Input
Amino acid sequence: MQFAVEGAPAPATAGRDPLIVLAGVNKFYGSHHVLRDVDLSIERGEVVVLIGPSGSGKSTLCRTINRLESIQSGRITIDRQALPEEGAELARLRSEVGMVFQSFNLFAHMTLLQNVTLGPIKVRGLRRADAEEKAMALLERVGVGGHAHKLPSQISGGQQQRAAIARALAMEPKAMLFDEPTSALDPEMINEVLDVMRGLADSGMTMIVVTHEMGFARSAAHRVVFMDQGSILEDAPPAAFFENPRCERARDFLSKIITH
Amino acid sequence: MSAVLDNLPIYVTGLAWTLLLTLIAGSVSLLAGTLLAAARISPVPLLRAGGALYVHVLRNTPITIVFFFAAFVLPQLGISLSYFTFAVIALSLYYTAFFCEAVRAGINAVSPGQAEAARAIGLGFGQTLCHVILPQALRSVVPPLINVLIALIKSTAVASAFGVAELLSNAEALANAESNAVLWVLGATCLFYLLLTVPAGLLASYLEAKLVFNS
Output
């Protein structure tokens, strides 16, 4: 039976049980090859930072993990389950992976509290009172508890992004994806969001972070993955990557951003 | 003048029927139009194609022909209903297409990030539409929705040609009886239509001010 071994760990990761595995992933936009044979596996509790020049495919890679982007070939598994094509099963799996967007994407017509309780009530079937209690605790944890009854347009970008993190955490996800979470923020608001993310990393959350914040990559990441033109070129601990990048493209990239 | 004042009850009865036609056909077509808009953006290709076909056929057909179909073709198929019901069916079929397109414009105006965020927390297509997209979409299209409603109010006059005793058909009867005061009779009829359409416009302004949530 060929299918009997489907769920078993691949030999390369024998003895370990990675939470997220991408194997031979390819994606095209028309004839543009945006992801080329990407293999990546992420352990439980690991914080992986994806960096690379714009257009390198790092955001696309992040979005394929909860199938906001479809892929043309390859396999993506979360906790040993393959991502389904569409429908209720995909929705269920998506709810187990939190996503934080560059443009926050808080529901504009809802208060922060309503933003955070919508998923738990509609997807998890929690009672409103329970969902609100949990949501308030999360909003307090990210430091916006005092704004729970405000609309997103009434608070700052940094506060919106922290509330968006609380919304994702309310689903009690197994992993969190961050797609350039601080790129749309004013400089003085970046740290308040990064601090929340550091706290989350310290609490043992599995995280994939697309970012240009090299300070965060150095201090919070377990691994740095460098991408260019749709391929993973380097995959190393932050100290090794920043001190001694092996590939020419990474050296070039780092020399350009570190001088700033 | 006396031709109008002496016959106020006839106007009021006509107005009541027009109002009833508007309320029923308006509710049905707003609801059906919203569902049709959902079909037109759904992930199912067959629903999208069917929705587009419906809109193109109904939107490009003169409403009088839709009335003829409802009043004369349906009975041939063995469906016998009152002319009032046929008028409701014709108006609803026709205006569903227009409400659909107004709602769809609103859906397209909602940032795609809103739907992505909804999908990312595990909401399905219907939940995303009901809880996230439509509440925002409908707010942004209050003026066009009211435009469609006003057009619908005025189209109820077509029902006069099919024996429904609404405002215009009562006014026509009156104009025949009071043939020396036709100008007054028709002028008053216009005023009675304004009694419906002007409040609809005011409702639009009220809703717009009330529902704005963006800074």
Q: What stands out?
A: The CA atoms of residues 8 and 128 of chain B lie 50 Å apart. The two ends of chain B are 51 Å apart (CA to CA). The interface with chain A takes residues 43, 111, 113-114, 116-124, 127, 131-132, 135-136, 139, 213-215 of chain B (CB under 8 Å).
